[in-house]
Amino acid sequence: MKQQTYRVSDLFEKYQSHRLVKLDRILLLCLTLVYGIIALLNLGTLSFPTTVYRGEVGESFTLDFGQEVNLTSLWVNGNIAQGTLRFVTEGEDSRTFTQDQGDMFKWHQVDLGLSARYLQVTVENREVAINELAFFENGTLLPVTALEGTAAYLVDEQDTVPAAPSYFNGMIFDEIYHARTAYENIHNMSIYEWTHPPRGKLIIALGILIFGMKPFGWRIMGTLFGVAMVPLMYVFAKRIFKRTDYAFLTAGLWAFDCMHFTQTRIATIDVYGVFFILLMFFFMYEYVRQDFFSTPMKEKLRPLAFCGVAFGLGCSSKWIGCYAGAGLAVVLFYHLICAGFTAYKGHDKGAMARRSLYRQQLSITLLWCVLWFVLVPGLIYFVSYFPYYRYQASIQEDYGLLDMWDTLIKNQKDMYNYHSQLTATHMCQSTWYQWPFTFKSVWFYVSGGNGTISNISSTGNPAIWWISSVGAVCLFLEWVLGKVKRDAVLPILFVGVLANYLPWVLVSRCVFLYHFFATVPFILLSTVYLLFLMERENRRLGWLKWAWLSLAVVYFVLLYPAISGLPTGMGYAGFLENVLPASYLYYGWV
Predict the structure, then answer these.
(1) From CA 228, how far away is CA 32, in angstroms rounded?
(2) What is the pLDDT of residues 407-425, one digit of tens each?
(3) Alpha carbon distances (Å) from 216 to 52, 274, 416
(4) Helices (H), strands (E): how many in the chain?
């Protein structure tokens, strides 16, 4: 009697459905939890000064150290202001500290070299806003009290002073723009960063409202959106492949992409634009995969409405949502045109009925799209500017609806002029044709000493980006040559790549690797689709997907110190920079 053999692939192929089965839910939960733990690990501190001293020119106060001490250094945790403080001892020795934009919400170290018991502090220029001052004698934190009540906020949270300044306890990279603006939105202040729509900063503000103006607070929402992308990719892939193994593969690769990790752990807005782009293409696929003629109209219109809402949320987070929206229009009209060709085939009674149904459903669909892709997104975009309206209303009498419209239009012009006329250069800039192969990372943070280095660079996982870039091109060529059967998802994938990538070919200003972030989900899905076709033709190739996922996980683990801020030895950092095929990570520090 011949012995029956079982393979792991049989388990995944047994229940082929676009819906999640029990095994899907178990794997998805485990993967999301694992990634969530990794993403939240060492995200940022919750121990951070939040009371603020605000002083104007001429204000003065005295700090008492209890005895004569050597003030070797001072750490300043600043708020939003620009001004100068002068520190004067009893012996008339003095030092100054000038607060600038880059000093906010992080610990800035200043050398003092003073000896005193009493230190007179005077606001010498403009105004200052300080969260906390910390004085040190040869590395030891000194106890200090303020003799005047107005200065108490300067030294009332000494327990929040960290062992050392780092990314963990302060702002890094563009957080000084986006997290700052989120704080300003909450407190109805003049808005500093206006070069992108407000939605992303409003989402960041939600985390600040819950956890406070602390590193964990301004980063948590982006991280949660990054975690949410994992189940979104899983469900998207399950809809496409109807296979648990390929859904798990897709979500697993996305979970262990290095840029997905770094870009969602910093308080910038790219994560929100990419999340909503992925969501809008998912709902568009939900629409186009349904039969135009046999599916009830209500079922067809529902995903279009969700897609339109995601489009509005994406555009009001970052203008890359507009590029993706143009791609959605291409997919939608391609679907409608294909349905039209089907409707107008033949001349029998059935064909006549199809034509009548087509004209009726086409009219309803177009009107529905006007509502959900024009009016609703327009309203979402308009409402997202509420912080601007609120601030203007606080400084301008009789500020009304027309004034709100003027504020909105002015900001759109200002944004366009800023991006179209930007001539600045940056050490991390790269060109669009370098992105698929992770030529140069975007450097967020570095700190080193005593033979170790802590570094955060935003780059792609080469095991994912390099393979996916080649795989997406191969799938496209197979489709053009007619070697791939017609599938509703293929226009979604190809348009997703082109709509999110091609606009950057035309941009002349300096651009960065993270501008490829929105394209990565689509080249990844395209390559997984190609792998799916290969295995369907030859089942012995099923091991390739697990080999690919394993390689991606290994690469993620190897690069983890360079993308997470984890302190590591200079020797290992040199291996990552000079030996491992990856990206330019340390910018001369190793």
Answers:
(1) 8
(2) 999 999 999 999 999 888 9
(3) 19, 21, 32
(4) 19, 10
Using only C-alpha atoms, the chain has a radius of gyration, in whole angstroms, of 28
Please tell me the distance from the alpha carbon of residue 491 to that of residue 330, in angstroms, as a whole number.
9
- 575 backbone dihedrals φ, ψ, rounded to 5°: -60, -45
* Backbone dihedral angles phi then psi of residue 65, each to the nearest 5 degrees: -100, 0
Could you give the CA distance from residue 480 to residue 467 in angstroms, rounded to a whole number? Answer: 20
| Report field, pTM of the whole predicted structure over 0.90 | yes
Report yes or no: 344 and 355 within 8 Å, Cβ to Cβ.
yes
Answer yes or no: are the C-beta atoms of 231 and 28 closer than 8 Å. yes
> How far is residue 262's CA from residue 401's CA, in Å, rounded to a whole number?
40
CATH number for domain 53-161, candidates 1.20.920, 1.10.10, 2.60.120, 2.115.10: 2.60.120
- The answer to whether 504 touches 511, Cβ cutoff 8 Å, is yes
Residues 6+ apart with CB under 8 A from 451: 569, 570
Q: Where in the chain is the domain with CATH 2.60.120?
A: 53-161
Structure tokens at 571: 């020797």
The three-state secondary structure class of 104 is: strand
End-to-end CA distance of the chain: 65
E strand or H helix at 68: strand 60-78
Q: What is the dihedral of CA 328, 331, 332, 333, to 10 degrees?
A: 120
Q: Which residue has the tokens 């040199």?
A: 574
Three-state DSSP string of 1-23: CCCCCCCHHHHHHCCCCCCCCHH
CA dihedral 430→434→437→442, nearest 10 degrees, is 10
How many residues in the chain?
Answer: 590
What DSSP string describes 106-135?
Answer: SEEEEEEEEEEEEEEEEEEEEEEEEEEEEE
Q: What would the pLDDT profile of 179-229 be if each residue is shown by its tens digit?
A: 999 999 999 999 999 999 999 999 999 999 999 999 999 999 999 999 999
